[in-house]
Design brief:
Mean pLDDT: 81
Shape: globular
Keywords: DNA-binding
Number of domains: 2
Helix content: 25-40%
Low-confidence stretches: 1-10
Strand order of the largest sheet: 3-10-5-8
GO molecular function: DNA binding
Number of strands: 13
CATH class of the largest domain: Mainly Beta
Order of helices and strands: EEHEEEEEEEEHHHEHHEE
Oligomer: single chain
Radius of gyration: 18 Å
Pfam family, one: cNMP_binding
CATH architecture of the largest domain: Sandwich
Number of helices: 6
CATH topology of the largest domain: Jelly Rolls
InterPro entries: cNMP-bd_dom, cNMP-bd_dom_sf, RmlC-like_jellyroll, WH_DNA-bd_sf
Strand content: 25-35%
Protein name: DNA-binding transcriptional dual regulator Crp
């Protein structure tokens, strides 16, 4: 069981009785399946128990864009969407997934017992969601391809607490997440290897230099 979500540490005992609060419905999805679409009418919270999920949309040229990615322990609210005509945001299973579905109204309303675990889950979701959105915005605002990569690596390195880590996304999907050309991204990663800034072995990255300097 995940014990920490977005910096808010959850005790294992906090998860005891969560079913009593939320009464979730568990569903399983195969790799590549569409889980659900975002809509103001979609009164749903998704709690990922296993697997990796992408939030994606298509741009004006019908090219896929990865808005965010979610892993075990993440909570997704599917009824909060930006005002956009004819734009569809949808969740898809990158890997085989197991997901709990909870009514948004149950998630946001305190249960009858006003239990601390319920409040901690909501607090953890708000903190992690805000942190994830700010991180992606910061990455996209970088002016060069190298800066985008270095900023992304710095966030992952800080999250994992070590200089060597595995990317949470395949490289082809990372290009979509960064909104860059994949071939150009691969050339930049090769240059960074040659300049001894990083060592990359497919999805395994070792940061040699201090990227914060």
């Amino acid at each position: 069981m995940i014990e920490e979500i977005g910096g808010a540490r959850l005790k294992k005992s906090d998860f005891i009785g969560i079913n009593e609060c939320f009464k979730p419905i568990e569903r399983e999805y195969k790799r590549g399946e569409i889980i659900t679409t975002y809509s103001p009418e979609n009164d749903t919270i998704c709690i990922i128990k296993e697997g990796t999920v992408y939030l994606t949309t298509d741009n004006a040229e019908n090219q896929r864009r990865i808005i965010s990615f979610y892993e075990k322990g993440d909570i997704i609210v599917t009824c909060i969407v930006p005002e956009s005509d004819n734009r569809i945001f949808y969740l898809s299973a990158k890997t085989n997934c197991k997901i709990d579905f909870v009514k948004y109204s149950k998630f946001t309303a305190c249960c009858e017992k006003h239990c601390s675990k319920h409040q901690r889950i909501i607090s953890a979701y708000i903190k992690k969601s805000h942190k994830k959105s700010l991180a992606h915005t910061d990455i996209l605002c970088q002016q060069t391809l190298r800066s985008k990569l270095l900023t992304f690596f710095e966030y992952i390195k800080t999250e994992k607490g070590k200089n060597t880590f595995y990317l949470p996304l395949p490289l082809s999907d990372l290009a979509d997440y960064l909104s860059v050309d994949r071939s150009a991204m691969m050339r930049e990663i090769k240059k960074m290897n040659e300049e001894n800034i990083i060592i990359s072995e497919k999805r395994k990255i070792t940061v040699i230099e201090d990227l914060s300097e």
